[in-house]
User: Fold these one by one.
Assistant:
Number 1:
Amino acid sequence: MDRATYETFVAALLAADKTEFKEFEGTPYFDGCLPIEVMAERGQETLRHGPMKPVGLTNAHNPGEKPYAVVQLRQDNALGTLFNMVGFQTKLKYGEQVRIFRMIPGLENAEFARLGGLHRNTYLNSPRLLDEQLRLRAEPRLRFAGQITGCEGYVESAAIGLIAGRFAAAERLGFALPAPPPTTAIGALLNHITGGHIESIDAGPRSFQPMNVNFGLFPPIEEPRIDADGKKLRGPERGLARKRLLSTRAARDLAEWIDSAPGAHSASQASANVRPAIV
């Protein structure tokens, strides 16, 4: 950003609608993880000396250019389909986030896989601590499931609990149950938790972030360019068609996994009677 773009951006942050805390929630902020709008309230230059600090960064296309402020994107999954805006935790309302973040040069047409929010969350650094079957690497007799593994949402937590139970039941019955394909919702989420996160094993504990299931976690698929009538797809229509193809592929691959996984039906029946160690 140049100075004018930065100042316009800060002004938009200050004027934006924000989600307020309930009275019983208190004030949970701490200085190491402030929302960007709170930092902006502390002074016009605060963001330039925080997450938008331009020192040490150059433009490879124009080495002589010195930016006034920068926004850094961190690759958030191995596929390179998700990027995190570094240091941009926020309590702005969702509509405001989309409007204001698209003011950032280069993000004018960005598709936001998930929007920001603040809440207390306790979770494992699962890519480092858990194997691909949700077992604790240091103590494989223990499995973890649910939100503590690094998934967000009720359905997602239940899904990871379900697959942890099936892994445990299959192990008790003496066979290996392969993970659901990463082209499926449950497989994509499991892959993110146990290895799909970029630099999963060597990254520090603050690098891995909990995730709802979203299309950004799925392996890419060739985007449709025309509809069934031969009409060229544009903008939102093209995105919707891509998501339909991803969903169709997921349903097909999940059905094939259920039918072909060795002992899958036995594991399902046994899970009601076996009580393996599941956390």
Number 2:
Amino acid sequence: MNKDSAVKIIKTALQEGRKSLSEYEAKQVLAAYGIPITREALVEDRDAVGKVARSIGYPLVMKGCSAAIAHKTEKGLIHVDIRSKTEAVKAFDAIMAGLDGYKGAVLIQEMIKGRRELVMGMTRDSQFGPCIMFGLGGIFTEILKDISFRKAPLEEYDALEMMQEIKAHKIIEAARGMEAVDKKILAEMLINVGQIGLEIEEIQEIDLNPVIISGNKPIVVDALMVLK
């Protein structure tokens, strides 16, 4: 783990007077702690779109990336299933126009396919400190509130127990032609989210949603980090 690189990102954001990280910055913090994220690149220059898109590989997802905007979907800043340079450049232009004065760029990322979505995160409680959350992700997170909590630090058995505590726990087992999720990777992700909370006190909240299951591997597709 490269904690120093994660701390540097957060210090820069705080020096700029920001209350949150951009999605790209949040994922760089996750990657520093060995948490699997989408292959992606931040692009500010229209001329670089084709080269970056080709290096990541189609199909792509493109998003407006700004620490000032938490909810990108409502603002039309997410374009999915982009399959050519022409489509990518068109999406880039639309997103930059949609940022509408906000400081930001365009995040170009691989499109992760998977029918199962999970959520994980961290909330810093005034009494208990960093508390880790795991549950059903995507649009069902707020509707069903099917989640489990533990106080950090986590051991592997804590993480495995959390997986069994949600009502939809069978979603991580083999079903309907889908492989069982690699629980070891999932457990490590939860443990490491806890480590971020323990080691970087400036982070108040982490929200990783969705974590999409691609084959049997969980990958963080979107990330939000709120600072103290």
